[in-house]
From TrEMBL:
UniProt-listed CDD domains: AAT_like
Keyword Transferase tagged: yes
InterPro entries for the chain: Aminotransferase_I/II_large, Kynurenine-oxoglutarate_AT, PyrdxlP-dep_Trfase, PyrdxlP-dep_Trfase_major, PyrdxlP-dep_Trfase_small
Name the record gives this protein: Methionine aminotransferase
GO cellular component, one term: cytoplasm
NCBIfam families in the record: PRK09082.1, PRK12414.1
Keyword Transmembrane attributed: no
Boundaries of every Aminotransferase class I/classII large domain copy: 28-378
Family of the protein in this entry: Belongs to the class-I pyridoxal-phosphate-dependent aminotransferase family.
Length: 381
């Protein structure tokens, strides 16, 4: 057999798989990968079972169950005053990551340039490279990880095809503000630049702040793929259901890729999600729910030797550890698992260039007793 020329020669198993496997090996408390350790609403399980018993067990339409696309359109209109046609501008996907991959593949051609902001969720750059695009990354740094729009303008050329944004941001827990929206709007005006907006944590925004979706701004909506996730919404990350909203011209290209990737998403869970979404309280109360967890975890962590970074959204809390050690964050994260029994994610894993940010990310979407046990161990540092 001839040797294979890798399309992603620098890519290894991602950090989430590595740290979760290490946590399992050492029976550590896993605050690394972003998933809850508490159950979803039993009503949702009953709705899935009801859909199965009612015979919704065959292929759903390629774009998603009609009922679910209609609920998504209603939700976007209610939250963002954004009109999306459920027939031509919404597609249900196999999770947020599939939506992101599909959007990138649909519009990025060889030698197109794509701007991403690092630290960045690790699926962005590989998808761009697989499409033959060129990644142009702008590095952001703690404590506030704000975007320098003057630098973005310098990165922008006539080859810039796509800008990828993520708010609330994973891993830094920052959110876009009104000034960011103004700068972005000015930047893309009179260009062909497309925006891919990763908004999977849209309902996890704290301290009275408002999520600023690309869908809510006409000039941005008309050129944006907006990606969301039911895994984050329903505490069901293992179900891998998300969706994408975009103007029909963009969505038409999106569907061309989607249909030859997964074609459609599991039917009974779509039917259940459509029914569950009829009660808006199932998502409007998420911010308070997670803010209570954030506040509890932050207060507990304050007694450790870590310094807490701001957390305005998502379910991640990042910390610096310069008062503890000068180790590389990747080395320290491994030692934290082996010696103290707590798994985290080193922030350097979200940058393309090797370095030591001296920052770790913890997930607080956990039961209170899980957070208590983790902090108890971290106090031994």
């Amino acid at each position: 057999m001839s040797s294979i020329v890798s399309k992603l020669p620098q890519t290894a198993v991602n950090i989430f798989s590595v740290m979760s496997a290490l946590a399992n090996e050492h029976k550590a408390i896993n605050l690394s990968q972003g998933f809850p350790d508490y159950p979803c609403d039993p009503q949702l399980i009953k709705l899935v079972n009801k859909a199965m018993l009612a015979g919704h067990n065959q292929y759903a339409p390629m774009a998603g169950a009609v009922e679910l696309r209609e609920r998504i359109a209603e939700k976007a209109d209610k939250l963002y005053n954004a009109a999306y046609n459920p027939d031509t501008e919404i597609t249900v996907t196999a999770g947020g990551t599939e939506a992101i991959f599909t959007a990138i593949t649909a519009v990025v051609n060889p030698n197109d340039e794509v701007i991403i902001f690092e630290p960045a969720y690790d699926c962005y750059a590989p998808a761009v490279k697989l499409a033959g695009g060129i990644v142009k990354s702008l590095q952001l740094h703690e404590p506030d990880y704000r975007i320098d729009w003057a630098m973005v303008r310098k990165l922008t050329t006539n080859k810039t095809r796509l800008i990828i944004l993520n708010s609330p941001h994973n891993p830094t827990a920052t959110i876009l503000n009104e000034q960011d929206i103004k700068e972005l709007t000015s930047l893309v005006k009179n260009t062909d630049i497309i925006i891919l907006s990763d908004e999977v944590y849209e309902h996890l925004v704290f301290d009275g702040h408002k999520h600023l979706s690309m869908a809510a701004f006409r000039e941005l909506k008309e050129r944006s793929f907006v990606v969301a996730s039911f895994g984050k919404l329903f505490h069901t990350t293992g179900w891998k259901i998300g969706y994408c909203m975009a103007p029909s011209q963009l969505m038409n290209e999106f569907k061309k890729v989607h249909q030859y990737n997964v074609f459609s998403v599991n039917t009974p869970m779509q039917i259940a999600a459509a029914e569950y979404l009829k009660d808006e309280n199932h998502y409007l109360g998420l911010a308070d729910f997670f803010q209570q967890k954030r506040d509890y975890f932050r207060e507990a962590l304050a007694a450790t030797k870590f310094d807490l970074l701001p957390c305005s959204g998502s379910y991640f809390q990042s910390v610096t550890y310069r008062n503890v050690t000068d180790e590389k964050d990747s080395d320290f994260a491994v030692r934290l698992v082996k010696e103290f029994g707590v798994a985290s994610i080193p922030i350097s894993a979200f940058y393309s260039r090797a370095g030591n940010e001296s920052v770790l990310r913890f997930c607080f979407a956990k039961k209170q007793e899980t957070l208590d046990k983790a902090v108890e161990r971290l106090l031994n540092l």
